């Protein structure tokens, strides 16, 4: 069946929104399957920039039905602002569908996230402080509020009263925080939020099954990335959901047979926001050069991103974990001015060589990168639209990465504009 997944192969910010925008041209439905407004997907259309946090990037095409699946956590006010922002710029969100089983991120989640981070001090995780972790924790503890609760005011109020009795006691006792008034929050949800979002609630599972059976292409848009995955990432410096491709099934309610394409998105170098291990991190001039040229500052939080060389060990692990069928390489133009470019081809730990990520955190923490050095191309790539126009050194870099990852690179992005990419034949 015609299902495609787009998944980040690094620590996020690979430019997934860009690739979703390209691939969505040929899809009828685009689904977000996990994460929340900790994500920030940027798309540039005719020099207009759209920054999306919750709505699938495919919304910019009129022929696409954007769907927010059950695996997503939704801050309803952020979603409403995003709908209004798009409407004010001529993009209609009337066809957006919300899963009734998606959970809500509410003010007490955000408060808990902020206070917990502050309390961790130097050991902080570097979360986006959006309340994502506490919302998923409530989901697992079976006390979360779901989108469907917006349709039933009485149930919503009583569930809020019950969960806030517990959450407020915790906030007061542990953090000396006054907590959140349950009635006030219930009133806001019932009067401000429900009238806006209730009309968008739909049977997203049924819709997707019918679409897939009818042969319509569905694109599953991952947020965050493989190494921020709760199970497979650099725990505990991870997000609270599962960005890996396998979760596209759980987070939207389809089975494995529906997927015939998994596009792994990799930036031509590596970045990371927040704390945690980063084997190829660059601390000096080259790292700053990448940050400046690549505008590597968080879309949402504006935090400077940590920058480093491409890590093929992580890349190979991501290809395995997601069963990628192809790669899209983004931001190749950021490397334009470099004399030489390094790629980490293996890790060395205590005299042992690792081609895949070591299975123990303690080994990963001590890993030393083994680099291959390639010549730079020292030519601007931003106007290149065909493979034959690329300088030889750039082609060599792409081919080197293909060999390292064992997969073809199908798209190469050379600038932020919607048309600034090269498509390689299958
Ligand atoms: P949380 O998702 O806000 O709980 O943050 C957990 C970790 O994931 C932190 O290191 C964040 O910086 C990182 N993170 C969360 N969302 C994104 C994203 O969309 N791009 C990059 N990093 C992210």
Class from helix and strand fractions: alpha/beta
Unreliable parts:
none
Helicity level: 25-40%
Total of domains: 3
Shape by Cα distribution? globular
Bound small molecules, deduplicated: inosinic acid
What is the overall number of helices? 12
Main β-sheet, spatial strand arrangement: 7-5-2-9-1-10-14-18-19
Overall average pLDDT = 95
Please summarize the sheet with the most strands.
9 strands, mixed
Q: How many strand units?
A: 19
Q: Characterize the quaternary organization of these chains.
A: single chain
The CATH topology of the largest domain: Adenylosuccinate Synthetase, Chain A, domain 1
Rounded radius of gyration (Å): 22 Å
CATH class of the largest domain reads: Alpha Beta
Gap from first CA to last CA: 19 Å
CATH fourth-tier homologous superfamily of the largest domain: Adenylosuccinate Synthetase, subunit A, domain 1
**CATH A-level architecture of the largest domain:** 3-Layer(aba) Sandwich
Strand content: 15-25%
Summed up:
The protein has about 425 residues and is α/β, with parallel strands linked by helices. Helix content is about 30%, strand content about 20%.
Secondary-structure map:
Elements: E1 3-8, H1 16-24, E2 29-32, E3 41-45, E4 48-52, E5 65-68, E6 73-74, H2 76-88, E7 97-98, E8 103-104, H3 107-120, H4 132-140, H5 153-175, H6 182-197, H7 204-213, E9 218-221, H8 246-250, E10 259-267, E11 270-272, H9 285-293, E12 306-308, E13 310-311, H10 312-322, E14 326-330, E15 340-349, E16 352-354, H11 361-365, E17 368-375, H12 392-405, E18 409-413, E19 421-423
Parallel strand pairs: 1-9, 1-10, 2-5, 2-9, 5-7, 6-8, 10-14, 13-15, 14-18
Antiparallel strand pairs: 3-4, 11-12, 15-16, 15-17, 18-19
Bound molecules: inosinic acid (IMP).
Inosinic acid (IMP) binds at residues 12-13, 38-40, 125-128, 130, 132-133, 223-224, 228, 237, 239-240, 273-274.
